[in-house]
Structure formats: C-alpha cells, structure tokens
Amino acid sequence: VDPGRRMGVAWPVRDDSEWPGYEPCEEASWWMHRARLLPEDRRRPGIRAQVVRTELRGPKSAMYTAYVLHVRTAFHVRGVSRRFSDFASLDDRLRARFPSAPALPRSHRLVGTLSPSFVQERRQQLQDYLDQVLADRLLAYSDTVTTFLALQGVQPLD
C-alpha cells in the first residue's frame, strides 16, 4: 500500500452482540475481515431474514398486524415491516414465476386474526416460509424476493 495514497473507509458489520453494529476500518484492511464472512466454499453467505416482532397498526376500526423483519446480508442489516397480505402477494408472484417455490400457509380465518395466539402461530409460519424461500439461492436472489426484503441490487458473489 502506497503511504501517500488516501485510504477509503469500509463499514463492516460487527455481529457479536444482540444488535449488529458497524465498525469503521481502512478499506485495505477489510480483506482480513472478509475471510471471516466467507464459508469454506468461498461463496458469500446468503440472505437471512428473521421475523423479530409483531406490531398492531392502523385505526381501531381497521387494525392489522405488521410483521417486523431483520434482513441481513454479508454487508447490510436493515429492518422492514410487512403485512400478511404482502407475504401473500410475494407468494403469488413467486409461484407464478417458479412453480416449485414453497407455498405460503394460508388461513381462511376471518375472526380473531388479532388474537395473540393466532399472531404468534402466523409469525412462526411466516418465519418457516422465509427460511424455505431463502434456502433456495435462485429464489433468494430473484428480483421478487430482493424487492420484498428491500434489498434491490443485491447479487450473489460467485
């Protein structure tokens, strides 16, 4: 490294606590950290999403449940919230484009959709669905999924 050359700063994610943090380092030293992020087969870790909590939103006459997701890639961590109808729309678009995509469990329940037990059960179903979708590299990096997870432009490193 030329000592007269100005160095850029990289912001790798430090993930050793409950909440991920960013830690500045010189761009040239980033490659030392990069080795810890890559598994043995030298591919970038995939996209991970976790349904971390639920929130009741809207006016009392039209309340709905929002599912808050933490979405992680090797270099990004962000939070997004989605309604069940957003998941249903994702499922419809994925299955139209990829017929073998996993199916989202649907509930035809009209009453009691805000009850804590129902919301918790649905949260687990949505987590299982996301895990199945993100386990398939083709689905995980499709425009449909990256748009849903607010990760436009994320590409796998191969």
Automatic annotation (TrEMBL):
GO terms, molecular function: phosphatidylinositol binding
Gene3D superfamilies the record matches: Phox-like domain
Signal peptide: none
PX domain boundaries: 45-156
Domain of life: Eukaryota
InterPro entries in alphabetical order: PX_dom (IPR001683), PX_dom_sf (IPR036871)
PANTHER family given in the database record: SORTING NEXIN, SORTING NEXIN-13
Name under which the protein is recorded: PX domain-containing protein
Organism, as annotated: Cryptomonas curvata
Lineage: Eukaryota, Cryptophyceae, Cryptomonadales, Cryptomonadaceae, Cryptomonas
